[in-house]
Amino acid sequence: LACKNCDTFPCARDRCLCPCFKRRLAMTTPTNDSVRQLDQQYVFHSWSAQEGRHPLVIAGGKGCRLWDYEGHRYLDFSSQLVNTNIGAQHPKVIEAIKAQAEQLTTIAPATANLARGEAARLILSHVSDRFSKVFFTNAGADANENAIRMARLYTGRDKVLSSYRSYHGNTGSAICATGDWRRLPNDYARGHVHFFTPYLYRSEFNAATEEEECAAALRHLRRIIECEGPSTIAAILLETIPGTAGILMPPEGYLKGVEALAREFGIVLIMDEVMAGFGRTGRWFTFQHYGIEPDLITFAKGVNSGYVPAGGVILSNEISHFFDNRMFPGGLTYSGHPLAMAAIVATITAMEDEGIVEHAARIGDDIIAPALRRLAERCPIVGDVRGKGVFHAIELVSDRETRAPLPAAQMAVLKADLLARGMLSFIAENRIHVVPPCVVTVEEAEEGLAIIEAALTALARSQD
Ligand code: PLP
Predict the structure, then answer these.
(1) If we measure between CA atoms, which residue out of 157, 304, 294 comes closest to residue 233?
(2) Where does it sit, as one GO cellular component term (predicted)?
(3) Does ligand 1 have an atom closer than 6 angstroms to the CB of 275?
(4) Does ligand 1 lie within 6 Å of residue 141's CB atom?
(5) How far is Cα of residue 42 from the mean position of the Cα atoms in its chain?
(6) Helix (H, G, I), strand (E, B) or coil at 391
(7) What gap in Å lies between CA 248 and CA 219, rounded to an integer?
(8) How far apart are CA 277 and CA 297, in angstroms?
(9) By the 8 A CB rule, do 93 and 347 touch?
């Protein structure tokens, strides 16, 4: 049968691809099935094989709760990709985006615009006066791309040192700087050298204590710098606390030691605060816990919780002045997009007014950290717990003695169980990352932790 509307043949309703059917499908009252079907039919997905996906359907949200088209509600303990620091649909941010949309939706990066200037001023108000300018990007990966480019131009050197256990984004240089498997299919750039950063639970250095791990990791980095040749190294790029690689807490003194090595050899120190920044660990920026001052800071995610894509690089006075009389060959059509900038201004203002950063610190110290310590005592498959603020990881093992990671199949069972219990989780390899929005309430934090404990207890019992 031909389609009644556009006369295209054939029209089999649920399989028809004629233009008017596509329109109709998009316009009918959505259900979980219809939206999932639409997605499966037309959307090409990142980081995934295209077949066999059964994506979760999300229709709306508020704060730490998200829901689908059929009224199922979820507690979001993932902050999506650890970006919704301010939760879903914060009314002041939504209002600011609407107001900016009424006034001006887009303008080229080279123009002066109130929202852009205000966003930069507010970001700079949360770092020391070592920093004086903000370069805006569309996301975290291009923030790292541009920071690397700045460091190369500034030093006239080429190499970038970064950790094997890191993720810096999925574009040219950022994916090459990424240390783990995610780099391998994309590794085509020269000048990227990787090294080991501290991870006491699985020490590369056979260290038994934090002090030993720290000292060995610093000796290792010094050797890498000496062997590569300090005069060839433009930058050391590090996540302050490596996030997707496992929320790996730097031991006391490690980042100070890295800072000292960078200064000794004239290397630009870039701290990637894309995931750890903007309140996640209970400070505006995580490096502020460690008494260091980088040369460049990259950010994205929490700066406006991803309500409109944005990221950027914060430049030290020195690097910023270097470009006073030199063109910086970077930037994209939408860099510093007005809607994203308005969302940044409203997000930072709301975080200041509502004490959201301090709240995240308290939730971490008073609720999450003690609960995870108790969990580690009670549950035999918990190997290690670590973190700060709303940035914690639970590392799961099948044997506490050997520390053998819990196999992927069991992690998949766990993820499905957490979802069935009403929780969206961030699971990476053999870890649950406890990363709710910074605005998570005490009750929500306790609810989420109880769900995790119940799911882990059930999983541990199923192994007996
Ligand atoms: N840097 C870190 C530490 C990240 O965690 C991520 C993303 O997860 C990125 C960079 C890349 O950010 P984006 O996905 O916004 O490009």
Answers:
(1) 157
(2) cytosol
(3) yes
(4) yes
(5) 27
(6) strand
(7) 19
(8) 10
(9) yes
Closest CA to 379 of 415, 432, 447: 432
Place of tokens 């059509």: 333
Going from the Cα of 256 to the center of ligand 1, the distance in angstroms, rounded, reads 24
User: Is the minimum distance from the CB of 182 to ligand 1 under 6 angstroms?
Assistant: no
Asked if 379 and 373 touch (Cβ cutoff 8 Å), the reply is no
Whether 281 and 275 have beta carbons less than 8 Å apart is answered as no
Q: Which of 78, 136, 180, 301 to mutate to test the pocket of ligand 1 (most atoms within 8 A of CB)?
A: 301
User: Are the CB atoms for 8 and 2 separated by under 8 Å?
Assistant: yes
Is the beta carbon of 145 within 6 A of some atom in ligand 1? no
Partner residues linked to 210 by β-bridges: none
The contacts of residue 378 (CB under 8 Å, 6+ apart) are 453, 457
Residue position matching structure tokens 């970006």: 83
Residues shown for the chain: 464
| Residue 268: φ, ψ to 5° | -75, 130
Annotate 195-264 with DSSP letters as a single string: EPPP-GGG-TT--SSHHHHHHHHHHHHHHHHHHH-GGGEEEEEEESS-TTTT--PPPTTHHHHHHHHHHH
DSSP string for residues in 74-141 = EEESSHHHHT-TT-B--HHHHHHHHHHHHH-S---TTS--HHHHHHHHHHHTTS-TTEEEEEEESSHH
pLDDT in tens, the chain (464 residues): 556 556 665 555 545 556 665 555 555 689 999 999 999 999 999 988 998 888 999 999 999 999 999 999 999 999 999 999 999 999 999 999 999 999 999 999 999 999 999 999 999 999 999 999 999 999 999 999 999 999 999 999 999 999 999 999 998 888 888 888 887 776 667 799 999 999 999 999 999 999 999 999 999 999 999 999 999 999 999 999 999 999 999 999 999 999 999 999 999 999 999 999 999 999 999 999 999 999 999 999 999 999 999 999 999 999 999 999 999 999 999 999 999 999 999 999 999 999 999 999 999 999 999 999 999 999 999 999 999 999 999 999 999 999 999 999 999 999 999 999 999 999 999 999 999 999 999 999 999 999 999 999 999 998 87
299 pocket-lining for ligand 1 (C-beta < 6 Å): no
| Amino acid found at 296 | L
Residues 367/375, Cβ–Cβ less than 8 Å: no
How far, in Å, is the centroid of ligand 1 from the Cα of 160? 17
Q: How would you classify the pairing of strands 431-434 and 391-399?
A: antiparallel
CB distance 86 to 347 below 8 Å = yes
